[in-house]
Design a protein that fits this description.
Two copies of one chain form a homodimer.
Chain A (H helix, E strand, L loop, with lengths): L4 H4 L2 H16 L9 H8 L3 H8 L2 H19 L8 H18 L1 H12 L3 H20 L11 H23 L6 H19 L1
Helix pairs in contact in A: 2-5, 3-4, 5-8, 7-8, 9-10
Chain lengths: 197, 197
């Protein structure tokens, strides 16, 4: 009965824990510096056991990035029942805080996707699609976002703007407050949609 | 007196011609497919002579991309004397047409810069800085763009939006007209600046 808690975990639970640890480590370093060695040391287990759980370094990286993207999607998911602008404000605040807290890892995903790494690109595009499709599917009244080629194009471009703004501010926040950033993020979508009507 | 015109060109002029040809070839193919062989064949000269002009494939690529960026800067430079919104409209139309006409090459620059290729990144950032600084320096009345940390951040993000929108539309224009794209591009900067005041 004196076995350590670690030993009693089933493999799936253990893998989940390792993924969460990987995501936390990724917050403060680029993906290419998240080695199996780093995670093994942080988790206090052997490199061999990590390869057992993840197969290869590439698969480990993919799994961590996918988990990080899932966490972003969940964190930015607004509570039901609010109107669309309130949901947008919730998502924007959560997105901003996520990127600030996970700056290095998020930047790795963006760079990796842009550089043509196919699996990172797929994860990036899937999660962006979830984040932007949400804007179209969760407005039963259709007040803000009619689903047209024009608004789809604008939302695509707006997402690039949001990402660029938040990454830039996370890197150089001097002179601009969080509230000012949020005012721009929240106001920009309605303003751009108005231009595309 | 019967020597071919090619022979009479001095080396600097010849190099200029080869660079222009490289830029034209880059319009319709990604940078990694713009080989010394491709250019040598298109120019009707030997690979050896191209190496003589450019030193290496990497230097050749850099020179072509830098030339393409210079052409973009020149093409989008508005005539003097107009008001700021007219200059903005001129630049946006020129930028849109440039990206549509040079889609593959422009995409290569964006991807190369994002992937961390240092020389492409430098060229990309320099040209983006020229394009956006223009917005701050050419408005003697300061009507639209007060130079504050807020507007700098917005212009940075707006540039990402413009690029995302134009690249997306160049790839999938269906359902959205050039005029509709331009209305969004031209209206978005004043609308975003308003949010940042």
């Amino acid at each position: 009965m004196a076995s350590s808690p670690r030993v009693r975990l089933d493999p799936a639970t253990r893998r989940e824990q390792l993924l969460s640890l990987g995501v936390r480590l990724l917050a403060t370093r680029p993906l290419e510096q998240l080695s199996i060695e780093t995670l093994a040391e942080a988790a206090g287990i052997s490199r061999g056991l990590l390869y057992h759980y993840f197969g290869s370094k590439v698969q480990f990286h993919e799994a961590v990035v996918r988990r990080a993207a899932d966490e972003l999607i969940e964190a930015t998911s607004p509570p039901p029942g609010e109107d669309q602008l309130a949901r947008l404000a919730y998502s924007m605040a959560a997105y901003l805080d996520y990127v600030v807290e996970n700056h290095e890892g998020y930047l790795s995903l963006v760079k990796g996707a842009a550089s043509g790494n196919e699996s990172l690109r797929a994860i990036y595009q899937e999660s962006r699609a979830v984040l932007t499709d949400r804007l179209f599917t969760e407005d039963p009244d259709g007040l803000m976002l009619p689903d047209t080629p024009q608004t789809r194009l604008v939302v695509h471009a707006w997402a690039a703007m949001v990402e660029g703004l938040v990454l830039q501010w996370a890197e150089r926040p001097a002179g601009v407050s969080r509230d000012e950033v949020l005012a721009i993020l929240n106001g920009s979508l309605p303003a751009l949609i108005e231009l595309a009507r």
